Amino acid sequence: MLFLIKKEAYQVRFLSDNDVRQGLNVPQVIHLVETVYKARSKHNTETWPTIFYDFVPGKADMDIKSGYLKGEKVFGHKTITWFAENEAKQLPTLTGLINVFDAETGRPLGITEASFITGIRTGASGAIGAKYLARQDSETLLVVGSGNQAIFQIACALSVLPNLNTVCVAARDQEKLSSFVDAIPHRLQSEFGMNIENVTFAAAESLEHAVKSSDIIITVTSSRTPIIKKEWVREGTHISCIGADMIGKQEIDSSLMSLACLFVDDKEHCMQVGEVEIPLKEGKITESHISGEIGDLILGKIEGRTSNEQITIFDATGMAILDIYAAKMALQTAEDRNLGIKIDI
Questions:
Q1: What is the rounded distance in angstroms from the CA atom of residue 269 to the CA atom of residue 252?
Q2: CB-based contacts of 173, cutoff 8 Å, min separation 6
Q3: CATH architecture label of 12-117+321-344
Q4: Distance separating alpha carbons of residues 287 and 276, to the nearest angstrom
Q5: Which terminal Cβ of the chain has fewer Cβ within 10 Å, N or C?
Q6: For the chain, what are the domain ranges?
Q7: Closest listed residue to residue 151, CA positions, set 171, 133, 132
């Protein structure tokens, strides 16, 4: 005899890019990223293997990241794509979706658009690296790259680094760079609600000069060859390396790694696909050069910068658990404010 179980009606909430933007802000995301880093340090998270695929190397790629936050009782996955030539087609270059599930029932809790969450939580990561590793008297920030990620790095850095008075941006396309820099104050206000005073925004005419003049450097490019040379980086500089998130990507000289106090977000993942991947393969550094993970540093389990002369580096490849937690928080806000739409499944 065949018994059929009646399926109950079930709905999940879907959040568009606009819905997500209404549900998350910079201070909130910086806090939740630190929370996830600390949860990882306490072994309360799982990060599962990432799937990467290059459709056209350097021009079009995608990745699928997944993970589990035990304390929050949620798991999920994100599929994100980057197609550089979409800009010429007047389409977004970065798009994706995040799926969040209840870890007690396995049922989906919701789906969110992924590009804003990816941007803001990645911006938070770069800023957190600087917050815990840069010199306390740091005043000048250089962001290398003017693509999707640059504005998020600037917004988050300004939020956690109150002594910054100069933000310089470097990029290959000087015409695009000039337009980007001119728009920064307006974008900070309109996209993040930030009214920034007493900060100078400038376009770098020379990457070498900008590197030599900066206290903090955040790299957000898709480069596969080093663009920052060891001899350019002065004593006491902090670098947050954000762009390298796939095998073969590299933004800074391998030899610089051996001179620096080096931290990562996810040690295993960074060794596979982060900024440390190629220096390890080249033998310029060994695993022992990695001082530890940022969550351990935040919790005081390990020591960070010990002098104003040290060069510090934070290699952040990004973890799905950051996206999942941010998406969960956005979904909770949406429930309270009735944002998004509900879908029958």
A1: 18
A2: 146
A3: 2-Layer Sandwich (3.30)
A4: 9
A5: N
A6: 12-117+321-344, 133-316
A7: 171
**Which CA distances in Å does 264 have to 125, 129, 160, 197, 339?**
11, 9, 19, 32, 35
In this predicted model, what pLDDT tens digit does every residue of 71-90 receive, in sequence order?
Answer: 999 999 999 999 999 989 99
Q: What angle do CA 95, 62, 27 make, to 5 degrees?
A: 50
Residues 6 or more apart in contact with residue 132 via CB below 8 angstroms? 294, 297, 298, 304
Q: 187-213 b/e with 16+ CB inside 10 Å = b?
A: ebeebbebebeebebebbeebeebbee
CATH of 133-316, one of 3.40.720.10, 3.10.450.50, 3.40.50.720, 3.30.70.20: 3.40.50.720
Helices (H), the chain: 17-23, 26-41, 115-133, 150-160, 174-192, 207-212, 254-259, 267-273, 277-282, 294-298, 320-337
Range with the poorest average pLDDT among 4-18, 130-144, 218-232: 4-18
Alpha-carbon span 220 to 148, nearest angstrom: 9
